[in-house]
Design a protein that fits this description.
By secondary structure, the chain is an alpha/beta fold. It has helices at about 5-25, 55-65, 75-80, 80-90, 110-130, 145-155, 190-205, 215-220, and strands at about 35, 45-50, 70-75, 95-100, 135, 160, 165, 185, 210.
Length: about 220
């Protein structure tokens, strides 16, 4: 993956120095932040974060139902069982994307810290899976123009947040009414299999089907 700490630092410094008027110009050409994909197709997008819990039942559902999915992974969460994820990507239905190294709020870091988190994760994931991630999910959905500048310098084409978080955090959340183009957030937690099934059931109830995220970002003109 192409990286340049010098470029990250220079761009961030330039953005701060330009002030409010200059910031408008600095935003030109930055990767977009996407929480919903504009599309006329009856599709939704399943995304799964982190990677700490390697649930075989969740993998079985993804593989047997051939669910297109974007995996926003932390390198440390994949390193002790890379095979779990290569099984998912080997079917061609799952793509591995960037979620930083240590899951920090990127808006709180300086330019060097952003570079280490974003470029560092991208390089490690490329080494493990043979493909440089092109999408970044900023932890907590925290993003500003400096984060976008750093992401661009690390080869990121879009920052992806979400429309609905369907993860069970203590209590099962209400099942959302999905609409076309929605981005569904899940996590590799012990409840992933059940959460994934709820998301798939919600998509089916709305007459929607899961689709691959990157091709639809391109066809929608987002990238």
């Amino acid at each position: 993956m192409w990286r340049s700490r010098v470029l990250v630092a220079a761009l961030a410094s330039m953005s701060l120095a330009l002030g409010a008027a200059g910031s408008a110009h600095a935003r030109v050409g930055l990767p977009p932040v996407v929480n919903h994909v504009p599309t006329q197709e009856k599709v939704v997008f399943i995304t799964i974060d982190d990677g700490w819990n390697h649930d075989p039942e969740a993998a079985r559902i993804l593989l047997e139902k051939r669910v297109p999915v974007s995996l926003f992974l932390l390198p440390g969460a994949t390193s002790y069982d890379t095979e779990y994820f290569t099984r998912l990507t080997g079917e061609g239905r799952a793509s591995v994307e960037n979620h930083t190294v240590n899951h920090p709020d990127l808006t709180t870091l300086d330019a060097a810290g952003k570079d280490a988190e974003v470029c560092g994760a991208g390089e490690r994931l490329e080494a493990a899976f043979g493909r440089a991630p092109k999408l970044l999910r900023p932890p907590y959905g925290a993003v500003n123009d400096e984060v976008r500048l750093a992401a661009k310098a690390c080869g990121v084409k879009a920052l992806v947040t979400w429309t609905h978080d369907v993860t069970t955090w203590g209590e099962t959340p209400p099942t959302p009414r999905l609409e076309r183009g929605d981005i569904v957030l899940l996590h590799f937690t012990p409840t992933l299999a059940a959460d994934l099934q709820r998301a798939l059931d919600a998509a089916k109830a709305a007459g929607l089907k899961p689709a691959a995220l990157m091709p639809h970002l391109k066809s929608a003109g987002v990238l």
